[in-house]
């Protein structure tokens, strides 16, 4: 997909923006009084968030100083540039953002990032998990994909003369991704647990819409303070996705938009969940798949994305993910988390 985009004279730069929980073993036996925010790891050991500080708490930074510093230093030692860190909204949840790079390096960095966070957490006696939804009543873990479009070493997303401030190629690229989102979900949010995170009014992009700085839009175009547009994010991505497949199919969707000269619908600048049925119909607002089975059904019908994957890979992927959906669907929510907590 990188090569196909280069044939159009274009390149993508990208970064995955991860959220993760730091968890610890619970010394108290899980029961009905204290079990609400407790789960078990795959060995049956009860776990709970490492702490319960609020969003962006400086106290959380103090409590986690040593482990976060070690993670940052380990990432830097592996030539990954760290941009910022803050405690996220869930108890024991954190976000460390890293610098964008060319598409292939971005996928490489995602693997290094996940392995580094989990390895350093283990050294500190904690368990890190990127599982999209661990606790039913706290925030899920997203892995937003940030993208920019380049030509001749220049970012070409912005055009101050256009209606939306986006270049023609930028509009078409985003339009292609937006159009294919229902089938991309099978690859960017690829496990049943992914769909417990993607819900309306959860800042996770449950609707097939785009908007400027709209955190409820599946595609959030980020307008800088000076009005420029340098990148956008696809919110319907989590760290259970294979980053090479996820980024590859997103590029293929954007490339399809360019080749077919797709037009962007008007941006949605409010929470789509607050729209009436009549407003949603008039504005063309639709919900994205609410479960993996629905996403896989969309993927089976999307020739563009299937062709991008290739016959062998697409057939294998659909078969494996369908089997996973059926197997995990037989488990209780708690057992599903027990099985997947350390895997992701």
Going by helix content, strand content and strand pairing, the class is alpha+beta
Uncertain runs: 29-35
Helix percentage range: 25-40%
How many strand elements? 12
H-E order? HEEEHHEEEHEEEHHEEEHHHHHH
* Average pLDDT over all residues: 93
CATH names the topology as Creatine Kinase, Chain A, domain 2
User: Which architecture would the CATH scheme give at its second level?
Assistant: 2-Layer Sandwich
Strand content: 15-25%
Give the CATH class.
Alpha Beta
In whole angstroms, how far apart are the ends? 26 Å
CATH superfamily membership: Glutamine synthetase/guanido kinase, catalytic domain
Oligomeric grouping of the chains: single chain
Whole-number count of domains = 1
| CA gyration radius, whole angstroms | 20 Å
| Coarse morphology | globular
Topology:
Elements: H1 2-6, E1 11-25, E2 39-40, E3 46-49, H2 58-63, H3 65-77, E4 82-87, E5 93-98, E6 101-102, H4 103-123, E7 127-129, E8 143-151, E9 154-155, H5 168-188, H6 194-197, E10 207-212, E11 217-223, E12 229-234, H7 243-259, H8 277-283, H9 292-300, H10 303-309, H11 311-328, H12 333-340
Parallel strand pairs: 10-11
Antiparallel strand pairs: 1-3, 1-5, 1-6, 1-7, 1-8, 2-3, 4-5, 8-9, 8-12, 11-12
Helix pairs in contact: 3-4, 5-7, 5-9, 7-10, 9-11
């Amino acid at each position: 997909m990188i090569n196909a985009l280069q044939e159009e004279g274009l390149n993508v730069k990208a970064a995955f923006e991860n959220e993760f929980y730091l968890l610890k073993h619970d010394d108290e036996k899980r029961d009905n009084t204290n079990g609400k925010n407790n789960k078990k790891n795959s060995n049956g050991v009860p776990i709970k968030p490492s702490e319960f500080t609020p969003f962006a708490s400086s106290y959380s930074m103090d409590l986690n100083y040593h482990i976060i510093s070690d993670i940052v230093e380990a990432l830097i030692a592996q030539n990954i540039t760290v941009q910022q860190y803050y405690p996220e909204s869930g108890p024991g949840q954190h976000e460390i953002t890293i610098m964008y790079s060319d598409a292939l390096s971005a996928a490489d960095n995602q693997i290094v990032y996940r392995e580094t966070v989990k390895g350093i957490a283990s050294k500190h006696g904690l368990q890190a998990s990127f599982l999209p939804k661990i606790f039913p009543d706290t925030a899920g873990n997203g892995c937003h994909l940030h993208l920019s479009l380049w030509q001749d070493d220049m970012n070409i997303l912005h055009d101050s003369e256009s209606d939306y401030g986006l270049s023609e190629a930028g509009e078409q690229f985003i339009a292609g991704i937006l159009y294919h989102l229902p089938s991309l979900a099978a690859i960017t949010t690829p496990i049943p647990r992914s769909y417990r995170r993607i819900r309306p009014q959860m800042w996770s992009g449950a609707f097939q819409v785009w908007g400027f700085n709209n955190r409820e839009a599946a595609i959030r175009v980020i307008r800088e303070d000076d009005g420029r547009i340098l990148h956008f994010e696809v919110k319907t991505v989590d760290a259970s996705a294979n980053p090479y497949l996820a980024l590859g199919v997103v590029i293929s969707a954007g490339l399809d938009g360019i080749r077919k000269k797709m037009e962007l619908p008007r941006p949605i600048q409010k929470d789509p969940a607050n729209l009436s049925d009549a407003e949603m119909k008039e504005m063309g607002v639709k919900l994205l798949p609410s479960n993996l089975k629905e996403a896989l059904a969309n993927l089976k019908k999307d020739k563009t994305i299937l062709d991008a994957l290739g016959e062998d890979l697409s057939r294998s992927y659909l078969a494996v993910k369908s089997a996973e959906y059926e197997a995990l669907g037989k488990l209780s929510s708690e057992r599903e988390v027990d099985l997947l907590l350390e895997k992701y």
